[in-house]
Amino acid sequence: MTRQPNIHPRIAAIEQQLIAWRRHFHQHPETGFEEHETGRYIVEQLQGIDVEIQHPVAQTGVVALMSNGDGPTIALRADMDALPIQETGDVPYKSTRDGVMHACGHDAHMATLLGAATALDQLRDQWHGTIKFIFQPGEEGFAGAKQMIDAGVLKDPQVAAIFGLHVWNYQDYGTVGVKPGPTLAAADEFEITVTGTGGHAALPQQTVDIILVAAQLVVALQSIVSRNLDPLESGVVSIGMIRGGQTFNVIPTEVLLKGTARAMREEDRLLIKARIGEICQGVASTYGAAINLNYHDSYPPTINDAQMSSLVLEAARVVVGDGAGPPFLSMGGEDMAFFLQEVPGCFFFVGSAKPEHRERPAPHHCAHFDINERALAVGASVFIEIVQRIMPGA
Ligand code: NI
Q1: What is the mean pLDDT of residues 314-331?
Q2: Which is the most buried residue in 80, 132, 277, 295, by most CB within 10 A?
Q3: What does 318-372 look like in DSSP terms, one character per residue?
Q4: pTM above 0.90, yes or no
Q5: Whether pLDDT at 276 is above 90
Q6: pLDDT of amino acid 394
Q7: How far is the CA of 70 from the centre of ligand 1 (A)?
Q8: Residue 191: which CATH number?
Q9: Could you tell me the CATH number of the domain that includes residue 372?
């Protein structure tokens, strides 16, 4: 365990409020593009702060503009949505909604951003310029960031850099993970429908056995990462669902497969996508089956700007000292990627594991997910340090 974080005094003074905000969001979760109450609550909490509020943006999002003289415009971003998960943890601030839960920590992101806005409003002598506080809906598969960009949140005034964070239960409290370049994966989805002439299992010569075809496909798709991708780069092709057939002695007429394809670089993403198409065609002609591929481009890889990443690392060192360093990486996807395609910036990770998670891990998207709430003050302090570095006061 690293030393105790150096929480910014303005954040330390309101830490209990940050925790209260997080608990309110946690108790009242809403899924993607349903965040109506969440958006209204954010607007209410911003009332005491000198900001210009736009709401709703992209259906349920909120943008708060804090102007403070001449200087660059930067954006700080939080996501708002919860997941369709029934919370099983026994915490006093448990979700009050059946089957909906903040199981990824977006409640913490909103609370952190509200805390940063409150403190930066009081610290106007220490920075110059304009800050856009972006609360975006629908991160969990709805590409809410893209809709916010289409709604113009990066323009008027034009955003020069953007920063966002994720609480990260794979890292201890008191750490901040920062990495230049690819940080999270492109995460695409695909569906493959295999059709053929079914029939009696005892007369396979009269059929096209699409169960065999589907099995060949599953195996052949694994050759993409092992044989086509540069072994020094990262990619994943996983089939998560196969559905076909009714009973033991009938060869079916349709098999459905669903899977995900992930890569850390755009070129590898395109390679994997192209190879999935080629393998489907090749297997179809080999076995005489019809194979239809439906490939959905979902989130691009999350790529951090090198310069902005070193600025965030510097900011994080002030708060957590040696606890700042490379993050725990995964092939997860994140729609912050869309913002980072438009403007330079950095998406970083704030360690939020509780001591008991060593015995019983509570990973993101699990039904007993919970965080060390002291991570909120760490994240908000890093935001303040970033602002003071990128748009210093007189
Ligand atoms: Ni998340």
Answers
A1: 97
A2: 80
A3: HHHGGGEEPPPP-S---THHHHHHHS-EEEEEEEEE-GGGGTS---TTSTT----
A4: yes
A5: yes
A6: 64
A7: 34
A8: 3.30.70.360
A9: 3.40.630.10
HSE at residue 353, side-chain half, CA atoms within 13 A, is 17
Domain boundary among 249, 278, 299: 299
Show the tokens assigned to 252.
């079916």
Tell me which residues are annotated as active site.
Answer: 81, 139
Separation of 126 CA from ligand 1 center, angstroms? 31
Which pLDDT tens digit goes with each residue over 222-258?
999 999 999 999 999 999 999 999 999 999 999 999 9
CA-based Rg of the chain, rounded to a whole angstrom?
A: 24
Q: Helix, strand, or coil here: 86?
A: coil
Same structural domain for residues 81 and 174? yes
pLDDT tens track for 280-310:
999 999 999 999 999 999 999 999 999 999 9
Specify whether 246 is located in the same domain as 344: no
> pLDDT tens-digit profile of 47-77?
999 999 999 999 999 999 999 999 999 999 9
Q: Are 142 and 106 in contact (CB under 8 A)?
A: no
Other CB atoms closer than 10 Å to residue 66's CB: what's the count? 21
Amino acid identity of residue 91, one-letter, is: V
- Three-state DSSP at 228 gives helix
DSSP3 helix / strand / coil % (the chain, rounded to 5) = 35, 30, 35
Task: Please give the residue range of the domain that contains residue 178.
Answer: 9-184+301-390
Ligand 1 centroid distance, CA of 319 (Å): 23
